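Predict the assembly for these two chains.
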Amino acid sequence: MTDIASTPLGPKTGPETGPETGTKDSKPPLQHRKVKNYSRYERFWHWSQALLIFLLAFSGFTVHGTIRFIPFEKAVMMHDIAAFALIFLWLFTAFWTITTGQWRHFVPTNAGLWAVIRHYLIGMMVGQPHPYKRTLSRKQNPLQSAAYFAIMTLVGPLLWLSGLAYMFYSFWAGNSGNHDIFNLVVLLHLIGAFLMVAFVIGHIYMVTTGKTIFHYTRAMISGYEDMELTDAEVTYLETHEPDRIK
Amino acid sequence: MTDSSRRRGLRRVCCTLTSSLMVAIFVTFSGSFIADMEVKASPAQATEANASTPSDASRQVTGKEPGETADHTKFEILQQDFKSGPEVTKACLSCHTEAAHQVQDSIHYQWVFANKTTGQTLGKRNVINNFCGNVASNEARCTSCHAGYGWKDMRQPPPKEESAVDCLVCHAPKKYYRKFPTMAGLPITEPKKFNGKDFPVSDLTKAAQSVNLAQRENCGACHFFGGGGDAVKHGDIDSSLTNPPRDLDVHMATDGGNMACSACHSGSGHKWPGSRFEMDAKPVTRDADGKSIPSYQIRRSNKTASCESCHSDAPHQGATLEAVKLNNHTDTVACQTCHIPEFARGGIATKMLWDWSTAGKKKDGKPYVEKDDNGNPTYNSKKGTFVYKENVTPVYAWFNGTITYKTDDDPLDTASPVVLNQLHGDASDKTARIWPFKLMNTVQPIDAESKKLAYMHLFGKDDNAYWKTYDWGKALQAGMDYMSKPYSGKYDWAKTQMFWPITHMVAPTEQAVQCGECHTKNGRLEGITGVYIPGRDSFGILDWLGYGLIILTIIGVGIHTAFRIVTRSKRQS
């Protein structure tokens, strides 16, 4: 597979004009085309991860005693198995992200971050267009990148490292008579869990802020998304990656 | 978009979604299913091997392999018409030359237990418990459970003559031999009434000829009836264990392990380990390098078998997540805690409360007994008020095997119930585990001034015996005088408690306590301190910060949605 990030076109960041005017830039007209932004593996990763996180939250907060829809022992089993599945999925996805060069989409950047935040807070209320134009090399806006990067590098590892320590506590600290470490492990795991739940709520909400409520959801299911492409981008895709453009 | 490309798109959508869901669901639930497979603990083969011999399937498994070399009906010395217990003992000793002094050197005869850990000298001879209190001054009644004959004074050591050892109480079938309840350990050979009922007459000759290794009923003749009646004292030891079903006790069940008491309490030289005065709450199962010690070394003849002796410290077998999880508990939770869900399960109620202070009421000038719907006494003029219970959930506590007793010399702090046998161990103690107990509550007499436990003189023919004249003042004075203890002459009542470790009536694996019974708020382990129990505990304020974060997120989303809706309708108008 060709490295998407190796397109000759650098990322565009930020609006060409101030957000107040709301006018389009005066560049050559862009083509509306359907582009396959999410490969089959990426979609599989996204949806299986989503399901596992739901199972983990459901069973985890059962273990914690917050909810009681299933017996404790069933929740523990569900939680541990889903945890192993998710860790495996993450490890494989990390490998996939690195080998395919997809990691470049997730590197956080400050450029245009404030413009995006301002858009979500004010701009979208007054009908301004989204300040960030997604490109083939940066399919996520700066706010998305920052959030996903934080989840994948901070909250995720916090959860599964503390989770593994929790699960295998008896093997590395058992019989010490010192239960303080255990308390700390549980606390860290719980902090991670709360952060993850808050992220998921925010994430699901942000998904609805597309052109239509289900615009982004549909893209993550089919893989294809409406994009505005320059002639150069269209030519590149049609020449080198004809499968990615309709 | 063409039709074919739309179909392709649809197919892609379906494939993506279903494959993700299928994989995640399959992985999660296949794992759960595997985890559901029954985890069996299979004891070491050694105990299976001598479970029963084809020739005698009813035989109980003891610490010894079956295979007698002697038929006691053929011994001439046993073919005489025995008139008394000591006569039989003499006959026994003519062959078993060492038996008497072995027995006389044991706790069953001496009623003394020296606790090396606490330095206390305990045993029946010295301890005041919160059932019948004290043996002293009530000897002939209490010593009906002495493994000898004629010990009538606790202030003196037990009888020294070898013929005073009682062989038959442990070695003869109960149908041929019974000690009479008020005769300091002697049986009756002529008809005699006890409590208005005919008491079984012992056939000493048949008893002598049918001796055997001690069966459950032999140990049970005393141990089932501790505290003055069947099931009264321990809660997990009563006559339902004579021939229990598997549901009641997997090890002793006639259709289970059919083990005699000595299968676990296996010793030698007439010394049987396993006293409650000092216990092994957490057997050492691994050497310094963490290597598992073979079971035959865990179980030495001077130590009671623990669960670990046969089941190891990783008893839940199978390469399942559940087995691993459960085995992770064995360092902090005693096996008994999960595997004895309730005690007094054999259909016989155990005494949970005993209030001596209400004793002495009369109806028509006569002492009386009241019973509840189940036929358990709720009041007895001789003893006061009772509460009996069946199928009792234990209380749980950290326990490292060491117990300190309140002695007759300890002033008691009666502001709250006094624990007469203080358990040692807590969450930070490596040698402690969470154990199940029967908690006995009693109201019993103390010296009102010194606040020390008072000796009760209950049984006897003299006018000071409480069961004769119902006068606490006289009875307590007599008890204290008997023991030469200083006594102010004024008595008071104190609430006392005792912890009785629960370790018998092990239920079949499928009846073990479920995880959620402890891993929940207000569950079985609500009172256990010093350790975080998932499902029971939380981090208080930190928990609420987390819930607050989630609530704020939802509120933020709500406000944002509201703004979107409002501004959109404004733009549209």
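Chain A has eight helices and two strands. The two ends of chain A are 18 Å apart (CA to CA).
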